[in-house]
Amino acid sequence: MFTDKMILRIPGPTPIPPRVQQAMNQPMIGHRSGQFSELFARTEQRLRPYFGTSGEVFILAGSGTSALEMSVVNTLQPGEEAVVLVSGAFGERFAKICERYGIIVHRLEVEWGEAVTPEALSSFLADKPQVQAVFATYCETSTGVQNPIRELAHIVREKSNALFIVDAVSCLGAVACEMDAWGVDIVVTGSQKAFMLPTGLAFLAASKRAWDVIDSKKPLAFYLDLKAYRKSLADKTTPYTPAVSLIFGLVEVCNMLDEEGLPAIIKRHELMRDMTRAAMRALGIPLMASEEYAATTVTSCHPHDAFDAEQLRKVLRTKHNIVIAGGQGHLKGKIFRIGHMGFCEPLDVLQVIAAIEMSLQQIGAPVELGAGVKAAQEVLLAHV
Amino acid sequence: MFTDKMILRIPGPTPIPPRVQQAMNQPMIGHRSGQFSELFARTEQRLRPYFGTSGEVFILAGSGTSALEMSVVNTLQPGEEAVVLVSGAFGERFAKICERYGIIVHRLEVEWGEAVTPEALSSFLADKPQVQAVFATYCETSTGVQNPIRELAHIVREKSNALFIVDAVSCLGAVACEMDAWGVDIVVTGSQKAFMLPTGLAFLAASKRAWDVIDSKKPLAFYLDLKAYRKSLADKTTPYTPAVSLIFGLVEVCNMLDEEGLPAIIKRHELMRDMTRAAMRALGIPLMASEEYAATTVTSCHPHDAFDAEQLRKVLRTKHNIVIAGGQGHLKGKIFRIGHMGFCEPLDVLQVIAAIEMSLQQIGAPVELGAGVKAAQEVLLAHV
């Protein structure tokens, strides 16, 4: 096997498109140069449609978690109250960040694999008038569930004065996001998912209402102080050293996203989700997320006692050079997750399904070779 | 002029060596894979000699400032006292970070262009027994001054029980640093200086004594919580998503550093400093730093009324494709700074000097063409 052909089908990082790789090879430039400032300011503006906002998108050298923390430390103070929707590992991370800062957290927890429904949020908020912010996860990467952000935003707007803050790390750029129209106040994402870049950048956009709150509060941190980023962005730059080579790549990512167009990108991801789910059903492998709330970027499968998920992943990796993800938290070792996001096309999905079928046979699990591929082909043919 | 041949002679980012660029082009891998873990753990260990420590070096997705903040939020609590040595813009940044967290800051300030002497620190510490940490800047990038860290560490060890925390962003990898032997407790640096990588990574190493303090305190932040990094490093990984492509590059940087060897790297930088200073003296351009405390990675020049530093920079950039840095803070527009660090050799120094001479003539400043180059050549010839 070519070691250079290791195929990443995990929910981030995505493989890097060659033209993005090429863009990152441009010679280094000074991050305080006019050349960089022009590039940076133009690129920031090109990101806004993917967030669905007319406001600024702030670009941070850091992981997605750094931007999650940024959304907390600029909007809340110790002793204030927040509701955190916890439907998996990343909802739990939001709760932990809040708690680190002495914020009183009300967890709205659902079983891993389920979504938080608008009804559940509505009744949860009813007796909590003090809540200053509601945190939600758009795509819960650990379970493959996509929470109904638009509807949840509607509830928050209707039932409270809280800010609605959304972790969209593992889906933004692949899903609809109209933060201005829906009434979402902060959206956070990372570079290595649907944005098809290496890991190392995070993004955050904030609404006018969020800024009113931010302006009224003392930031609880320094590197993550949003007001410093806004002040610098007005001068087309960043307060601290930006990750220049990744921003070179981001320019080319914007070109690719704009060429395909967000509606087509969303459809491509829906198609890949439908193909993957059809295949898993045909192979008799239970899906974690329901039809209604299945993520378009990652599919989680729970084989229960039918076979060992870790054994499947190992054979896929060692015999077929394909990497899929395992479980997180209490699902570690029990489930497998197929990433189908970013630089990934329907034919790539057929490939990973075919490899899963062979691997199942190789680990001695009952499998009808070709059955999953056929089901996915039928979905694909109905769309093209 | 080839736009791809723009020559960076600023105090970071440094140009990227082709073999490092090449290494960053490897296909993306999962950051939770065994393959990445092995690579990461090996590379972390290879960094230790450049810090002069037998302890772990933590690698952070973020700018140098994020690691400066990391050194604060893990070692101090609001209301505790710190001494910050301020000899320029980056010392001032340390003070501001501390103040953001409600730490009582005692600034030991010296004129920009001067170093903090051991004597000054000794008397400053004398009446401050409560001080829990002393913060210093190894190379103050904004003035080209290298503070005498070894001697300052000796004073801190002798006169107080405080931790000694050092910002070595713009020099580590190019200067002697024996944190264990000298009694330095935390050393912080960034990727885009002597480590010859793009911007986007930061590094931090901590002493046993620092860890005793860190273990006794509640971290004031989440993404920058050092205990989380230590726990993950024991499992050969990071608590949050690492910047994988930059770490691919870092492996090759370690190869380059190890091949040349730290003693030779230090000598190369000293030589480039000496060449640059000899040239500026020959051209009659005043140097900001004294002989004793001149940085080996950046040289700051203050033309006073002889010519306009900004005009010189502009002609260098537009007519000769070479970028040098201007001043920061109250020196903005008044000085120019030549970076000679990382992927930079003595012949590169001759080139920038020759271009400065021509630019001086082009802006109508008095200059003897070749005089600076000759002085630098003589320094170089005496060394080879």
For the termini of chain A, the CA-CA separation is 32 Å
CATH topology of the largest domain in chain A: Aspartate Aminotransferase, domain 2
Helix content of chain A: 40-55%
Structural class given helices, strands, pairing of chain A? alpha/beta
The string of secondary-structure elements of chain A, in order, is: EHHEHEHEHEEEHEHEEHHHHEHEEHH
Uncertain stretches of chain A: none
Number of helices of chain A: 14
Task: From the structure above, extract its key features.
homodimer; 384 residues; alpha/beta; Aspartate Aminotransferase, domain 1; Aspartate Aminotransferase, domain 2; seven-stranded mixed sheet; two-stranded parallel ribbon; 14 helices; 15% strand; globular
Structure description:
Chains A, B: Belongs to the class-V pyridoxal-phosphate-dependent aminotransferase family. Chains A, B: InterPro entries: Aminotrans_V_dom (IPR000192), Aminotrans_V_PyrdxlP_BS (IPR020578), PyrdxlP-dep_Trfase (IPR015424), PyrdxlP-dep_Trfase_major (IPR015421), PyrdxlP-dep_Trfase_small (IPR015422), SP_NH2Trfase/AEP_transaminase (IPR024169). Chains A, B: Its cofactor is pyridoxal 5'-phosphate. Two copies of one chain form a homodimer. Chain A is α/β, with parallel strands linked by helices and 384 residues long. The first copy, chain A, folds into two domains: 3-13 and 261-383, Alpha-Beta Complex (Aspartate Aminotransferase, domain 1); 18-258, Aspartate Aminotransferase, domain 2, CATH 3.40.640. The first copy, chain A, is built from 14 helices and 13 strands. Chain A has helices at residues 18-24, 34-51, 64-73, 89-100, 118-126, 149-159, 179-182, 208-216, 226-234, 244-260, 262-282, 309-320, 346-362, 371-383; strands at 7-9, 57-61, 81-86, 104-109, 131-137, 139-140, 145-146, 163-167, 186-190, 201-206, 298-301, 322-324, 336-339.
